[in-house]
From TrEMBL:
GST N-terminal domain residues: 1-85
PROSITE patterns linked to this entry: GST_CTER, GST_NTER
Taxon lineage: Bacteria, Pseudomonadati, Pseudomonadota, Alphaproteobacteria, Hyphomicrobiales
Highest rank taxon of the organism: Bacteria
Protein name, entry field: Glutathione S-transferase family protein
Transmembrane regions listed in the UniProt entry: none
Domain (GST C-terminal): residue spans on this chain: 87-215
Organism: Allomesorhizobium camelthorni
UniProt-listed Pfam families: GST_C_2 (PF13410), GST_N_2 (PF13409)
């Protein structure tokens, strides 16, 4: 059994997609980050960094195994099941693109969203910096996907799942764009193919039964951006 600590945001969505694709038995454990539950002791025992997603594999080697960070979780689950890792000769390419997403496209997309929607007005340099860097990472991926069905080799892998989690939020990253993927036709074609998979519709339903907080009030800001309030 996998205990899956979840909030409906891009990085947990990647792991949810793997779980739905693989058919692994899992229990969704809601972590309402807008209420600050990620900072509570019970969750910090799972992820000391206080971020979702995280998992606890109750059937891990040597007993319960915790894994945090979406890229680490995807690798762990792929190795556990022997699925979605592509071909052995393609492992260097898989790792390269997985970490490109985990250290580049994802974080810059997240910062672009933050400075366009959550930061105080007047930070034009930061808004431009992160929006342009997000777009640059999209351009790298778009160029790579020309003539390809999947990001790595000829197989659907955890790299595609990882990218789907953030590309699904392109309308947030590319604020003001009516068609956020218009400038990235190869990503657009790739995304449509991934998004049509039956597991994606099941992934979108994960957590729907839980009433996650949706109000962006002072409590939410302090929960999501605690460093801004450090004394």
């Amino acid at each position: 059994m996998i205990r899956f600590f979840f909030h409906p945001t891009p990085n947990p969505a990647k792991v949810a997609l793997f779980l739905e694709e693989s058919g692994l038995l899992y229990e969704m454990v809601p972590v309402d980050t807008s209420k600050g539950e990620q900072h509570q002791h019970w969750f910090r025992n799972v992820n000391p960094n206080g971020k979702v997603p995280a998992i606890v594999d109750t059937e891990g080697s040597g007993g319960e195994t915790r894994v945090f960070d979406s890229s680490a979780i995807l690798l762990y689950l792929a190795e556990k099941t022997g699925r979605f890792l592509g071909r052995p000769e393609g492992r260097p390419e898989l790792l390269s693109w997985l970490f490109f997403l985990g250290t580049g496209l994802g974080p810059f997309s997240g910062q672009a969203v933050h400075f366009q929607y959550a930061a105080p007005e007047g930070l034009d340099y930061a808004v431009n910096r992160y929006r342009r860097e997000a777009e640059r990472h999209y351009e790298v991926l778009d160029h790579h996907l020309a003539g390809r069905d999947y990001i790595v080799g000829s197989d659907y892998t955890i790299v595609d799942m990882s990218a789907w989690g953030w590309i699904d939020r392109a309308s947030r990253v590319m604020k003001g764009e009516d068609e956020p993927l218009r400038k990235f036709p190869h990503i657009k074609q790739w995304f449509a193919q991934i998004d049509a998979r039956p597991a994606v519709s099941r992934t979108r339903a994960v957590g729907k039964e839980h009433d996650f907080k949706k109000v962006n009030d002072e409590e939410t800001k302090r929960a999501l951006f605690p460093s801004n309030y450090a004394t």
